[in-house]
Amino acid sequence: MTRDFGRHAYGAAAIIYGALTLYWHDVNTWPQLAALAKAPYRESVVYIVAAALIAGGIAIQWRRTAQLAAVVLGAFYLLVAVLCIPGIAAAPLIYNNWGNFFEQFSNASGALIAYASLASGKLTSTARAAGVGRIFFGICVVSFALEQAFYLDATAGFVPKWIPPGQTFWAIATTIAFALAAIAIVSARQALLASRLLTVMLVLFGLLIWLPALLANPHSHFNWAESTENLAIAAVAWILGDYLAAA
Questions:
Q1: Model confidence pLDDT, tens digit, residues 48-93
Q2: Rounded to whole angstroms, how far apart are CA atoms 119 and 181?
Q3: Fewest CB within a 10 Å sphere: which of 65, 106, 110, 175?
Q4: Cβ–Cβ < 8 Å for 116, 132
Q5: Of 201, 247, 205, which Cα lies nearest the Cα of 226?
């Protein structure tokens, strides 16, 4: 794994998000933005979101502009996460509302880690920012484990039937893997190994679940949005691993 591969994948996910916004000409990838995209502001919001994501995704590929891009992308994902809070307040017992928040917050955490990893020198403030990002991301991974546990049957349904020993086995196994990764990342004990293994697992999700779904139905907005979200979160895990390996 190269040191910057996670950052490049993170930017690629942002570019795809922006392209999806333009292709479908809406912000339905993030239902939380729907209130901001009502007429007469719909056109403006669509183009602003697409431009921010595509520009940020491109700019983060180069070290000279990567920190600014991390700020832009992090601010966007944080905004979407904050917009999830009213849904949580309205129905706090529906865990999917919490899951939506932590999915977006994980992307914002990745931007913070990326920003810190691009700072020159080994400043205390840089290490502290990266540490905060690590803990935030670890908490998000806790949420991923909980979400799979609460919706275990639905999780099992995503597992290809041809993979032995069975769908429920892999739903439980990956839920446990998320939980163990979360403990390691939050506690900073074996966090590098955990982030690397988490990256591999999420990449396998993309290859075994979301890529076939896209090939089967390439016109599904849901398939594109979920596969891109998976790529973005895998990139965050990779960014964390890259940072820890270089620290």
A1: 999 999 999 999 999 999 999 999 999 999 999 999 999 999 999 9
A2: 26
A3: 65
A4: no
A5: 205
